[in-house]
Amino acid sequence: MNQNVLYQDFEQIAACAVPWKHLENKRILITGATGFIGGYLAKALCWLDSQLSLGLDVELFRRTGTEAVFSAPCVHWTEGTLSENFIPEDFHPDIMIHAASPANQRAICADPVGIVDCSILATQYLLERARKDHSMLVFFSSGEVYRRRSGRIPEEGARDLAQSGVSSLYGNSKLAGELLCARYKEEYGVDCRILRPFSIFGPGESLTSGRYFTDFIRQVKETHKIQVNGPGTQIRSHCYLSDFISGLLYVLLRGESTVYNMGNEDNTCSILELAEQIAKLSGNADVIGPLSPEIQTDSFVPDTTKLRQLGWRPQINLQDCIKRCLDSYQ
User: Which of 5, 64, 13 shows the shortest CA–CA distance to 253?
Assistant: First the structure.
């Protein structure tokens, strides 16, 4: 991964207008720290700790048998399985960020039981620890808890969504985690802040993840062509990873115990338009397709009004998002 891209991202995150003093000397646990978003978050926090002298104590979880992917003075690694108690008894976190989750459709299909471990069993365990240690829990849910619809999608409560029905196993598992958070908030006063990410892209994601954005970048690098297999008319938003992490920090340091859509509706376009932009910015690669004659107009775009009310604004437009992703794989 191109480290220059990361440092540029982290400097932009450090410029956020948040009360950094509220993060000083905090003990933070992160699950999913070997994954795409969790790993980037852990590295960003370590960089911020060194630059802003925050005095963080960061505990990173990894599954038994996996390797610690990086080291830093403020970092300690703990290993285990998400279906068991994995937080060291002598570590009492102030903040727990539950970012562990299957990363893409291929991972979900390969290990459907892992979805239950991440979204339900581990979430309940973390909520119990949050209750005992008086910790804040930040739960990574997903925009997949919503059904597709036209227009921007505002936040709805977990119970309302459960009644309307969610179409996917992944979305239902995340919704179950949200319902657990809601119960612990109501019964025990646990501070649970729920993030629903929409289409987050950035450095570090595997080019074989099976997601359309990384598929297009991989094709450009391997063949200088992009093949759009579907109709290409689906509407999606595209949020660069540093903007997502900035949003998380606004929720962490300015937010409250509620649900936040996390995405960038300013970067909205069709999948075909995205392919054409990537082709152009990579050096005029060819776009083949779309290969499907049908027309799909489904939209997956968040309304981030609640997040913006905290003061957050996305900084990376679609062209810069594409450029930084292309550069990160150099």
Answer: 13
